[in-house]
Design goal:
83% of the residues lie in helices and 0% in strands. The protein is built from eight helices and no strands. The two termini are 20 Å apart.
């Protein structure tokens, strides 16, 4: 795909955006693992002592989301697979933003607050906000699954050098979908671990797709089979 040097440079940075998103998001969740229980008192206790780190985590995810959307658009344009991938990325960000927004509000309300000063209504509010955030995260897993599947399909329809990673993406899609369904169907603590595995697989997939796209662009590799065919025809003597 030809373009001005500035356009190519911007697309290169966009391609690297997936790796930035995955890294910032992972750091944010390592800094802010969340309360040990989803009941009112542990939730308030957690955010009273983790208010600042929660706000920093929200900021990191916010910045990372910008890079993720930039990456999704760049990947779609380069691979010729636009609608599902970009829509899946946007829906994922929207729902995850609801989750992060609820946690950010909890940090603002209860950060540094003495538990003695919290009323029963305060504990109820904390529980409601936490539940809304968790529900949005649960549903956000499905567009995330759609995004992984769309990018994997784009790779399978691309040049042979991409297809191996595409088949790995099929496996990640299945894992992400299974983990999303288990999280909805089960209330056991072990399901949380399955969900974490699915989320980490999603981040790893975005990181891998981003790095692979960057390398392909640096090498000037053809990403679209039809583009390769057009190039070959144009360079033949009969063209």
């Amino acid at each position: 795909m030809n373009g001005s040097p500035t356009s190519e440079r911007l697309q290169f940075f966009g391609a690297f955006g997936g790796a930035v998103f995955a890294t910032l998001t992972l750091v944010a969740f390592l800094l802010n693992p969340g309360p040990s229980s989803e009941h009112g008192i542990p939730v308030v206790e957690y955010y009273s002592t983790h208010g600042t780190v929660t706000l920093w985590g929200a900021a990191l995810v916010g910045v990372g989301a910008i890079f993720f959307l930039w990456f999704a658009e760049t990947f779609a344009e380069r691979m010729g697979w636009r609608a599902i991938g970009v829509a899946g990325a946007a829906a994922t960000v929207a729902l995850y933003f609801v989750t992060i927004g609820c946690w950010e509000i909890l940090a603002e309300i209860f950060g540094g607050v003495d538990l003695i000063d919290v009323s029963s209504n305060g504990y109820s509010t904390a529980l409601v906000l936490r539940d809304i955030g968790n529900g949005a995260a649960h549903m956000g897993n499905f567009p995330a699954t759609a995004y992984v599947g769309a990018t994997a399909a784009a790779m399978l329809a691309s040049t042979p050098s991409w297809r191996r990673l595409g088949w790995i993406g099929v496996g990640v899609t299945a894992l992400r979908l299974i983990s999303a369904l288990i999280e909805l169907a089960s209330t056991s603590r072990w399901s949380d671990k399955v969900t974490i595995v699915g989320f980490l697989a999603f981040l790893a997939w975005v990181f891998a797709a981003s790095v692979t796209l960057v390398v392909a662009m640096r090498r000037g590799a053809t990403l679209l089979p039809r583009a390769a065919g057009v190039t070959s025809a144009a360079s033949s003597p009969s063209a």
